[in-house]
Amino acid sequence: MRILVTGGAGYIGGVFVRAALAAGHEIMVIDNLCTGFEDSLPPEVEFVRADIRETRLLDPLLARADAVVHFAALSIVGDSVADPVGYYRENLGSFLTLLDRIRLHGPHRLIFSSSAAVYGSGEGRPFDEGDPLLPVNPYGGTKLAMEQTLAHVAPALGLNWLALRYFNAAGAVPGHGERHDPETHLIPLALEAALGRRELIVFGRDYDTPDGTCIRDYIHVNDLARAHLAALTALDRGVEGVLNLGTGRGHSVQEVIDSVVRITGRESVIKDGARRTGDPAKLIAAVKKAEECLGWQAQYSDLDEIVASAWEWSRSLYKDRG
Ligand code: UFG
To answer: What is the rounded distance in angstroms from the CA atom of residue 14 to the CA atom of residue 30?
Structure first.
């Protein structure tokens, strides 16, 4: 299949690009490099540096594609709180352009990167796809708006689609991992702390969880990439709609810190801080639907394995081999 990957120079998009190439697909990437890196793209990729709204450049790619996998989006919760209009303009605005140009040029397969942020605050059982959608920040709001738009316009466009709700993407594959600037995610920050490059602040120890710190469902980024490949196949079997992508297991911030100590063998400077606005206590995926619809399961079931892969990447990024 010839796949157009939007945002393919980013963290999750880049892992998908590698997995899709290895599976024998032909890959075209469109990315404006606002958060991605051109040097992260494998040489086999056909790359166009452009914003999706540059339709003169987008259209010929769509016309040649058999499927689109749409990763491109702004994804920092805190930034979305600071600039909600900008987040809706960038995320929803470019998505509307993409759908409009798909209407004109095809293709008829679309996989969309959604997020667990559409669910909002979680305290209890794992979220399943039928749970109420009550995003607590503008970032989650943009993803929900995009899901709803897609569900409404897809029939008119003859589009087969799946929206994949990622829980906490983590880990790395050889040569490619998280490289956000500034970094806001727990695992890379904890590893930077282990490298002595910073201190780590724990955002709240007073949550209603066993150790008082927030619980998240960390899914290895290569498992996410494998799920996208399975989703492309599932589209042709008539599978459509929204699917959670997680492991079904949760780990607290303290458990991540303990894992980082085990994997790195280093003690870090860790401080306790206040809660971060908008952080739900507990976000865990119910994964039965994805497993059934995609015939897929997360292969990384152990937090230490995920952290170890991220540690390899962090050390190569900062050239620390000690
Ligand atoms: N945390 C800290 N200190 C830090 C950074 C994070 O204690 O310096 C804590 C957070 O409070 C949270 C947990 O670590 O409890 C995970 O935080 P991340 O920033 O790594 O990830 P989030 O859960 O906030 O968000 C991520 C993605 C979102 C997505 C969400 C879905 O960034 O885009 O997962 O679960 F919506």
So the answer is: 12
DSSP 253-289: HHHHHHHHHHHH-----EEEEPPPTT--SEE-B--HH
Instruction: Categorize the per-residue pLDDT at 77 as very low, low, confident or very high, splitting at 50, 70 and 90.
Output: confident
Distance CA 304, CA 322 (A): 19
User: What is the 146 CA–ligand 1 centroid distance (Å)?
Assistant: 22
* Ligand 1 neighbour 253 (Cβ under 6 A): yes
**Ligand 1 near 201 CB (within 6 A):** yes
Using the mean position of ligand 1's atoms as its centre, give its distance from the Cα of residue 43 in Å.
32
Report field, pTM of the whole predicted structure over 0.85: yes
Query: What are the tens digits of pLDDT across the range 243-254?
Result: 999 999 999 999
80-117 tens-digit pLDDT: 989 999 999 999 999 999 999 999 999 999 999 999 99
Residues linked to residue 65 through DSSP beta bridges, in sequence order? none
139 is catalytic: yes
Superfamily of domain 186-216+248-321: UDP-galactose 4-epimerase, domain 1 (3.90.25.10)
Residue 320 has pLDDT above 90, yes or no: no
Ligand 1 pocket test, pick from 35, 127, 131, 168 with the greatest ligand atom count within 8 Å of Cβ, gives: 168
Closest protein CA for atom 4 of ligand 1:
186
Query: In this structure, are strands 270-273 and 200-203 parallel, antiparallel, or unpaired?
Result: parallel
Q: What is the CATH number of domain 2-170+218-245?
A: 3.40.50.720
Whether the predicted pLDDT of 52 surpasses 90: yes
Q: Which of 11, 87, 119, 139 is catalytic?
A: 139
The pLDDT tens digits of the residues spanning 118-137 come to 998 766 789 999 999 999 89
